[in-house]
Amino acid sequence: MRKEFLPYALPLLGEEEKQEVLKVLDSGWITTGPRTFEFEKRIAAYVGASHAIALSSCTAALHVSLAALGIGEGDEVITSTLTFCSTANVILHLRAKPVFVDVERETLTMDPSQLEGKVTRRTKAIVPVHYAGHPCRMDEIGAIARANGIHVVEDAAHAIGAAYRGKKIGTVSELSCFSFYAIKNMTTAEGGAVTLEDEDLAKKIRLYSLHGMSKDAWKRYTSTGSWYYEVLYPGFKYNLTDIQSALGLCQLEKLDTFMARRHELASLYDQAFSGMDELSTLSARSEVTHARHLYPVLLNLERLGIDRARFIEEMRAENIGTTVNFVPVHMHPYYRDTFGYKSGDFPVAEDAYTRLMSLPLYPRMTVRDAQDVIEAVKRIASYYRKG
Question: pLDDT tens digits for 69-82?
Fold first, then answer.
C-alpha cells in the first residue's frame, strides 16, 4: 500500500504561471483585458479556428453558444446521457428540451445509430460529448445534422488537444466548447472557450457573454475608451479574467507536453490491464487523437465478489483516489421525474454506470504512481475474484 494518498486528479502549475499572474496583479488590470485577448488568439491558433472567445466555464460556452444560435422555448437539443449535468442544464436554461441518446459500448461516446430516430421537426441542435477525450463519430453525426438542417455544438470539455481524422477538435463542427477547469488537460482554475469560423456568430457570442453590452470594460476604461455603451441584448456575465488568462497562456504552451505524459501513463495502464478478466478498458479508434483526459475502466462485476462502490473503497484503502464519470443525466432525480425516464431507457449508459471507475491520470503523476495504481487494481481484483 502507498504511504501517501494519491489524489484522483491535480493540476500541474509551475513558476512560469506564478510569475505571469504576478505580472497581471502588478499591472493594475486584472479583469478581461489584453491577456485574455492574447489567450483567445492563441487558443484559436492552437486548434486552427478563425475565432475563439474565452469564457468563465465550458458551461458558459455551451449556454451562450446555444443562445446565440437562437435556441429557445419549444426547441429540442439532442445530447448524450453519459455526460456531466451542465450539458443538459444549459438546454433547460434556454427553456428548450434536452433529448438524450445512448452511447457506444466501445468508447462511451454518442451512438450515431441511435441519433437519427431522436430527430424531430423541433430539433434545433446536437451536442455530441467527447467523453474522456475520445472524439465522437463526427462524420455520421455531421451527416445527420446537415441532412436535417441542425446545428452541431460540440461539448469538448474533455477534448482540448484531441483530433478527428487529422483535424483538431475545435474546427470539425460549427461550434466547439472547451473546459479549462482545475483538473482538465490545461487549466485557468475555472474557465472555458468556444471556437468557431463564423465571424458574425463570434461577434454575437462575445456580445452575449458580457451582459449584451456594446463595449467591454477595456473599451470603456482605458485611455482611448469611452464611458458610453448600449445594451443590445439581455446577456450573461461569462467573461474570463486576465488573471485566469495568464495561467491559460502558460498552460497552453505546455499542453502538448502534458498530452504526451497522459499518453505515456495511459499506455502503462493499457498494457497492464490488457487481458484482465475482472475489468475492461475503452477502445481508441484509429481515426482519432485521444486527449486522454480520463482513464475509465469497466469492472466486470460478474467475475468479482464485490460491487463498484466497494471496489472504490478498497482503492481508497490502498491510498489511491478514484471517481465515477458520470451518473447518466436521465438517472438524476430532476431529469428522471420531470421527463419520466425509467430503468432500461438507455441500456448501454446504465450498464456502464454500474461498472465505471476512473483511475488517476494527470501529468504530475510519476511512473511509480501509475505502477501503484496498477498494483492496487490487480491486488483487489485478485482478492475478490470469483471462483
Answer: 999 999 999 999 99
